[in-house]
Amino acid sequence: MPARAHALSQSTNGGYGDFDFDSSFPEPPRLPSSHANANGNARNHFEDIKFGLDDQITGHHMQLNTNVHAENHDAVGRHLLYETALLDTQAFEILDMGQIDELKKEHARLNSRIDAANRKLVLEIKMKDAAQNLNRLYSVGKKDGRPDTPQSPDKDRHSLIGGRKRTSSNNSAGGLIQAEDELSQSIKKVDELNEQIRTMMERRQVVERSLLRHTAAVLADQANKPSEAWLANGHRNLDGDDEVLGHASDGLDEFDGIRDILKGAPAASKSSADVQRMQAEHEQQMINMQKRMQQLNAQLRSVITDASQVRGQEPEPEPHMAPSESLGSSLENTFAVLEANMQIMQQEREKNKTHYARVQDSASETRNLVEQELEDVNNQLHNTLQISSVMEALKDLKEPPQATGHGYQNQVQYLEDSLHTLQKLLQEHNEQLEIAKHASSGIQDAQSAAAKQAKRAEEYETVVAGLWDLFSDEHRSSPVDGASGKDFSLQAFSSRVQNLIDVSNSAKEQQEILRRQIQQQRDLNGKSDMEKDREIQELQTRYEALNSSYDATQQDLAKAVENHLFADQQAQQAQSDMQEVMSQIDELRKTVEAAEARSKALDERHTLILAERDSLGAERDAHKQKLEDVQQEMQDMEGELVRLTTELTMAKAELEGAYGSRKERQKEAGASEAELDALAALKDQEIAQLRREHAEKTKLLEQELQDMMTEFQEMTRESLELEKERGQLENLIDTLRERAEQLEGELSDHQVQWMGVKSPGADGVVKESTSVMVLRQEFKKMMRESRAEGLRLLRAEQEERRRLETEVRKTRQLNSPLGRGPGRPGSLAHNRLNSIASSQGGSYLTNGSTPATSLGSPPATTMNLPNSGLPPSNEALKTQPQPQAT
């Protein structure tokens, strides 16, 4: 098999110059790292289905110079090699031109389809990687219990595969299912594309195998014909020589004696046969040289055309070759055309060099433009960071570097440092925002709880004040108590309640004593049972009234404890809101980290582009060196041609001096021309090989330059995207800063409003220095001012949040305590005052109801308010009777 491949590689110039078999084995595309195997080496479908002769054909440099091969192999080995190759190609069939054209068209079509499928495969692999990242993101979000996307919670995310949207942005399960569907479909598409590429690669191998077998069969058939033609031509030449000698013997010239010697002597006959053989070989070499020169001209013309088409220009017109009948003139014309084509090729090389210089200058200008844009971005970012009020994080930030034209690594490094500083600033702002939100939430909860406590305190104060007034009136009517002139205080009220309890206990004892006395009196005086029962009933009524007032006081204390528990629940709710804000801040930090990762990826891509540019420069230098080698070989071949021409002239002179026959001189000249043709053919083959290598390298360089320009365009687009994302982050920072300032202002306002205000019942043992009426008026005035300020802030906040908050939060804000006025004392306290007054004699009843009615049927709305934890509505408070002023 190696001998067969070697024979095929030596015979690739057999009439298929427009079909390059080496180009049919393209380098497999480099897939992303997601197709890497366990060892980290990238594998794909192309490595598994390479053609069997790929390594031998691509790694073998064809050498058509038979002299070079003759040095490496002896005659027997070379003959055996040729015979083996011919035997191997006996089973191959020769196709007609129609089948060859169809196979070539199919081969080109398969190449284009494979290239398109490879590009589509790369895109699908990128889509699959994106789907994997989304799936991983949603999986992590579901495990942590966080929402899908904190940046845009009210927007629907478009699917990567199109046609579906997420029904709810807050439903993390729906987003995870969608990401899994996208990932499965992407994997399915990648597998389908891989199968299509494998099928097309197999079909292309079949087409290439058919073409190669056809080429081998044609070359084997041509290799069998020269030996037969050589034998036939040899017999004809010998007969012709005899005829020439026979005709020459009829006339007399200066060579008659030599002819006689040649005809009569065996040695002379042998020399004549050698001369004829040499002349025949010389003519054949001249013919072969002319053919090779023509092939070389055609190949040079093809190279010139390809080079001009690469630059998008028309090639130079081909020099005209005048027809000539003589072999020498035709050879001279061919050399003239070859020389003209070489000059045109030299001009094309200079033009290509100029074109590559322009491309390099364009790449340098693009690099400088990118560096300048990065410098502008860094200056803007530096100015933005200088505006920030947090100067501690900016003390290590330096001035942005200037554009030097030597690359933008410094600009990218400064951009990374600036993003790191920006992350620190965002962390500090997030901490401040967390503190402000926590304080604002605590203030709102405290304000709400304080408003509720104030309403209940006012009710308790009214009830206690009424009870105190009753106690004061009762004790003013009693000559025993000397403390009736004291002002109201919790200590005094507690003392009065304790006194009432003592009075109740003493009343019970007196009742028991009276009962015994009545029993004794009944026994003694014989009073009627009706009078005794009436007195006992009166005492029992007074006892029940005292117990009722004591129970009411105990209920008020229980309500105060319930209010305290409700305030604790509000504090826990505020803590949960603070945790939600912390989760949002974490999502924002993740967004900043993603931006940093994209910047790092851009830096890596820039490094890769620089490495590719260096490799392109090295390949360009190698290409120049090869062109110089080709020119040197052309000069060597021209020297060889001059030497052969000189030897031909000397041989002609020797033949003329030895034999003097014109026919012999013509044969000798033909042999020399044949040798020149052989040398020209050898030169054509070598130049054809160099042309193919030059075409491949030129095509590769153009493709790599196009890829580099594409990479530069992608970098420019990504730079614009980063600029846009940076603008969004700046807007977000400005919004957070304004929100923090607003919260600080609200916090200051609330601190001023609640300065000096104490919770009711916190210091119950301290004696108040002002009267109850003065405290009540001051408290009402403060509540009115607080309500007015709260309404103003509420309107401003509603105007600001109207575009951002949902209907639920709007409703909650409208139903907050800041949206309602402070309540008035309920009817419960008034009824309790009336019931207590009725128990003391009925002089303080304002509605004329009995004690049983006042205590037994309070208003339902007022009794449910303490248990619900909400203040009474304004309509209910307006319909309730106002307490009498003390």
Low-confidence regions: 1-71, 145-156, 163-170, 234-270, 479-485, 756-769, 817-886
Number of strands: 0
Number of helices: 19
Strand composition percent: under 5%
Q: Give the mean pLDDT.
A: 67
* Helical residue percent band: over 70%
Secondary-structure class: mainly alpha
Shape annotation: rod-shaped
Biggest beta sheet attributes: none
Distance between the termini: 124 Å
The H/E string reads HHHHHHHHHHHHHHHHHHH
Radius of gyration in whole Å, from Cα? 56 Å
Polypeptide structure, described:
This protein has 886 residues and is an all-alpha fold. Among the domains are: 78-142 and 173-225; 366-391 and 403-467; 492-666. Helix content is 76%, strand content 0%. The chain is built from 19 helices and no strands. It has helices at residues 2-10, 54-59, 66-72, 75-88, 97-144, 172-248, 256-264, 266-310, 327-387, 409-477, 490-525, 529-658, 662-753, 772-801, 807-814, 827-839, 851-856, 860-868, 874-879. The radius of gyration is 56 Å and the shape is rod-shaped. The model is unreliable at 1-71, 145-156, 163-170, 234-270, 479-485, 756-769 and 817-886 (pLDDT under 50). InterPro entries: DUF7801, Uds1. Keywords: Coiled coil. Residues 620-756 form the DUF7801 domain.
